[in-house]
Amino acid sequence: MTIDVAFLKSISYFSGLNTTELDIIEKAFSEKTAQRGEVILLEGELSDTLFFVAAGAVKIFKTSTQGKEQILSIARLGDALNDISIFDGGVNPVSAQALGPVVLHGIKKDRLQGILQQYPKVALNASRVLAGKTRQLLTLVEDLSFRHVLGRVVKILLTHAGDGTTPVQRLTQQEMAAMAGTAREVVARSLKVLEEQGHIRLEHHRIVITDKKSLQEIVAESA
Amino acid sequence: MPLINQEKCNQCQLCISVCGCGAIVMVNNVVTVVETEDCHWCTTCEAVCPTGALTCSFEIVVEEG
Ligand code: SF4
Ligand code: SF4
Prior knowledge:
The structure holds two protein chains of two kinds. Chain A is α+β, with helices and mostly antiparallel strands. Chain A has nine helices and ten strands. The N and C termini of chain B lie far apart (29 Å). Classes of the chains: A alpha+beta, B alpha+beta. The A-B interface holds A 36, 56-57, 71, 74, 76, 99-101, 157, 160-164, 168, 170-175, 184, 188, 201, 204-210, 212 and B 14, 16-20, 40-41, 43-44, 46-48, 50, 52, 55-64.
């Protein structure tokens, strides 16, 4: 089975390499597929292969001790799934699950090490990718742990709420995220938290505010 | 049902690959949402859409009483 060189070229890790170099690197890759719902990587386990998404979408998430899931990102074409554990040698800090049929291209850790030594450009690219990932995760950590973001999401809900009789502007989680200056994953988490605490109820395509007063208190507290 | 803005859609079909309820299909080579009661508004299709073409919007209402 051959891996498409054009695909490798589109991966940030291998940008700037010429076709001859990519032809050599390509030989170190193998293909793996996963079905919808299949867990590709499990948090806490070791992995010996670095996987890149060649088709489909993969959910990257952490699970709390209470079994609650926090989505950190969605990996798509060209994204690496487990570079953190491959580079530091530790266990996977996250799990990865196929959201639909997924094709992955993988390279064994020892082969990757050889490539990094042979092609410093790849090492430089890797450091850029990892720095970008760190930045994205730090922003997410900040937004997930500070109450002011939850307050901003609640404020958006209160501002856009109708009484169910007159039509109001509908909002997507993406739009709420843009308004709150945060990531979609943080909005999804905020809505879940608010539902668990009994302030709202998620009903198909409706967000029902069940306790307006307590929501107003959250806004006041986070101001 | 979720909406697709065809001007933004690049026909990558990622949404089709993740939707388990068959609400998104190809019709004449165009990614299309079809009416189905099986859509449970999980919003996964919106989450994976790389172009922001697909949207699952919420109506926000206050429950009186
Ligand atoms: S919201 Fe979920 S079930 Fe509905 S169309 Fe999107 S992916 Fe399918
Ligand atoms: S994921 Fe978005 S861009 Fe891709 S086919 Fe679906 S609606 Fe179009």
